Amino acid sequence: MYETFLDEHRAEIVASLDGLTEEQARRPLVRSRTTLLGLVKHLIFVEKVWFDEAITGRSRAEIGIGASPDESFVLEDGDTIASVVAEYEQTCAESRRAAAALSPDDVVTGNRRGPLPMQWVYLHMLRETAQHCGHADILREQILAAEGA
């Protein structure tokens, strides 16, 4: 059930980019680093923190992600809608594989907060992904309104 609801939100964040140009997906509309494409890139970081670092205990350096969430919104010149979405979908598949053998009551010990049950990890991921889907809805609405759509 956790995975099903999380997958619905994962699909919603990807769908927020449907039909947009690269410029629109990168367009900054708020003072922070938040852009539609940056939200998806940030969620790659979040997936890796909770389904790799927390489960395996590997460091963020070993995983290949930045030390802080703020860095994860930064878009590189080579980032495109297709490349970021492909990485996000691959990361989500890896998350599913990492969690497959665990029950909601199993405790993971690799997160900085200390030992946490997988149920907590799933609820946190649902909350975080849903929150960013809401951000994406608003940003997309602003982009489409500016285009007269």
Description:
- This protein is mainly alpha-helical and 149 residues long.
- It is 62% helix and 3% strand.
- It is built from six helices and two strands, in the order αααααββα.
- β1 and β2 (116-117) form a beta hairpin.
Summarize this structure briefly:
With 149 residues, the protein is mainly alpha-helical. The protein is 62% helix and 3% strand.
Biggest sheet, spatial arrangement of strands: 1-2
Morphology: globular
Weakly predicted, low-confidence segments = none
SSE-based structural type: mainly alpha
E-strand count = 2
Provide the descriptors you would attach to this structure in a database record.
149 residues, 6 helices, 62% helix, 3% strand, single chain, 2 strands, two-stranded antiparallel sheet, mainly alpha
